[in-house]
Design goal:
This is DUF4216 domain-containing protein. Pfam families: DUF4216, DUF4218. It comes from Solanum verrucosum. The longest helix has 48 residues. Helix 4 crosses helix 6, helix 5 crosses helix 6 and helix 6 packs across helix 7. This protein has 402 residues and is an alpha+beta fold. Strands 2, 3, 6, 7, 8, 9, 10, 11, 12 and 13 form a ten-stranded antiparallel sheet that branches. The protein has a three-stranded antiparallel sheet with strand order 1-4-5. A two-stranded antiparallel ribbon has the order 14-15.
Length: 402
């Protein structure tokens, strides 16, 4: 009697299976192409040809044409209305959880959220510049929302504002919708409360800020505390999703960067002093934090690890243009014939006959022969001078030997 252990035979069979079938992910894709089980190889070939052909054709169309190549993944789902008025801040990708609850905005939260929305609205940038020139940059976080409301609704002002700008300047509704999950930019974000005691942590965020005095960009790292949806009155419906985050201190006391090993550390016990907790969801990227388990002196420090979006490759400075927009420039060939008339210096047109052209060609050939003869005589003279110089040099050498 013998004992059969399947685990001893698995390594042998797995190697043979990998050699015959290739990587397992390609075999999963190939299963979808099997339409006729009696001709499996032909189904593979036809399915692969159809997929490659459709992918090749998709490069000839813009992003407005829906195809498999530009289909959004599950972390980028959202509704973008092409007929929406041109305020892009209220028409962004993103999908939140269906379970939501209503809550009221406090005065401090309302002022911080409204100011952040106004500063990032493209249609109000001219008003922002006017406020900075009139007042100062420091008062923009406390007085800009009130100033904009009075400026837009001023009856004696000669500036005509759009109705959408007036509705945005009036402010959002006092009730907001809070949620725990939101998918945007290829990331799945969750609040700190939901991510607590889980193996995966999706509450870490970071954003690039202004440039400091040394010319380096300041990066802010934080943790999501709440995800809210702010709505504005009027038609069409205007809504925007914000992250209420708790930011760490971006100064050298709260954030350390090791450029040699590319390690970023944040001190989670030091918080950002300014009350600027809200950020637009489309502007953030995801990070997660890990601690030092074996160092007591690093107990208050976390290491920042930046995540990559799912199903997306980030390439900078790439111009993505549809192939059908390329225009090939074809230069038409035109036969150009030499004119038989020459222009006189005094703009008198004279006809040139064939006999005159032949005489000119004979004169040119005679001049070339004379030049070649002169060059030969010049070469002979050079050779003679070189022989005399050699004779003199030989005489000098013999005298030195004597």
């Amino acid at each position: 009697m013998w004992f059969f252990d399947v685990m001893e035979h698995i390594p042998i069979h797995l190697v043979q299976e990998a050699r015959l079938g290739g990587p397992v992910q390609t075999r999963w894709i190939s299963k979808q192409t099997i339409k006729q089980r009696g001709r499996i190889e032909g189904s593979f070939v036809q399915g692969h040809i159809g997929r490659e052909t459709s992918d090749f054709y998709s490069y000839y169309f813009g992003h407005d044409v829906s195809c498999r190549r530009n289909r959004p993944n599950r972390n980028d789902e959202g509704n973008i209305d092409p007929l929406f008025p041109p305020i892009s801040i209220f028409n962004q990708n993103g999908q939140g959880s269906k379970k939501r609850r209503k809550r009221g905005f406090t005065d401090m939260e309302m002022q911080s959220a409204v100011t952040h929305i106004l500063l990032n609205c493209p249609k109000i940038q001219s008003s922002v510049n006017l406020f900075i020139n009139t007042w100062c940059n420091e008062a923009i976080y406390t007085e800009f929302s009130k100033w904009l409301r009075n400026y837009v609704y001023d009856e004696y002002s000669s500036v005509q504002h759009l109705q959408l700008v007036k509705e945005v300047a009036l402010g959002p509704e006092s009730q907001v919708l809070a949620m725990n999950k939101y998918c945007v930019n290829g990331f799945k974000f969750q609040t700190e409360e939901v991510s607590r005691n889980k193996k995966t942590n999706n509450s870490g965020v970071y954003i690039q800020g202004d440039v400091d005095g040394t010319g380096q960009t300041i990066e802010y790292y934080g943790v999501i505390q709440e995800i809210i949806e702010v709505r504005y009155s009027g038609w069409p419906n205007k809504k925007i999703v914000l992250f209420r985050c708790e930011w760490f201190d971006p100064s050298h006391r709260g954030t350390k960067v090791d450029h040699q090993h590319n390690i970023i550390e944040v001190k989670h016990t030091r918080k950002y002093i300014s009350y600027d907790h809200f950020i637009i969801t489309q502007h953030v990227k995801q990070v997660y934090y890990t601690s030092y388990p074996l160092r007591r002196d690093k107990a208050d420090w976390w290491v920042v690890i930046k995540s990559k979006p799912m199903g997306r490759i980030e390439i900078d400075n790439v111009l993505d243009v549809a192939y059908q927009n390329d225009v090939a420039i074809v230069q038409q060939q035109v036969d150009v014939e030499l004119e038989t008339t020459l222009q006189h210096p005094q703009h008198i047109l004279e006809e040139v006959y064939d006999d005159e052209i032949l005489n000119v060609e004979e004169e040119i050939s005679e001049n070339e022969e004379n030049e070649s003869f002169d060059n030969e005589e010049w070469d002979d003279n050079e050779n003679e001078t070189t022989e005399e110089e050699e004779w003199e040099n030989d005489g000098i050498e013999t005298s030195e030997e004597e």
